[in-house]
XXLT1 xylosyltransferase
Amino acid sequence: SQVIVHDVDELTEQLFPIVEAMQKHFSAGSGTYYSDSIFFLSVAMHRIMPKEIKQIIQVDLDLKYKTNIQDLFDEFNNFPDGAVIGIAREMQPVYRHTFWQYRRENPQTKVGDPPPDGLPGFNSGVLLLNLEAMRQSKLYNQLLEPAMVQQLTEKYHFKGHLGDQDFFTMVGMEHPELFHVLDCTWNRQLCTWWRDHGYSDVFDQYYQCEGEVKIYHGNCNTPIPED
């Protein structure tokens, strides 16, 4: 098997011009830090990886695998036409919070509502990037353009700090057809921060996950259960 190591500085240099415009909307702190670009790698992976790489799985480090990663690769076969990215839903009401103004102005919206009928947003801890589909999707590449990012952030009054996850979430509100939603068991997030920060009444609607967990995600430094 072949291992290729990528230089972070080199990647950042390629990324920065593509993602600079979105950084001011989805980065922590104010200003656009050059180094923050790496948090947007997944968004433009199809522009950076060599053409012969057709699919890639990008994962966070705070994961514990309970199954063979090959089974996750098989999820690429379940992408519907037009979908370019496989991603699980966010399992806390973080985007109910972020979209508060849009929700107030649009009381009938599903934006920020819990599953199964709502649009709770996405969590980028486990990402299936169909690079080939991302390269070919005219729609997806239009959405990377600064003017489109600006238009959507204004429409949704969106200000985030979670990098690629915020971009995918916002785009998913507008164009859900670009995403293949992974079952929660592929990214069982354990963080409960929002339960104690104003959302205890609705928290469990976001947090519940039926089925045998395939990947645990110990986000916000949450301990992962021992076997």
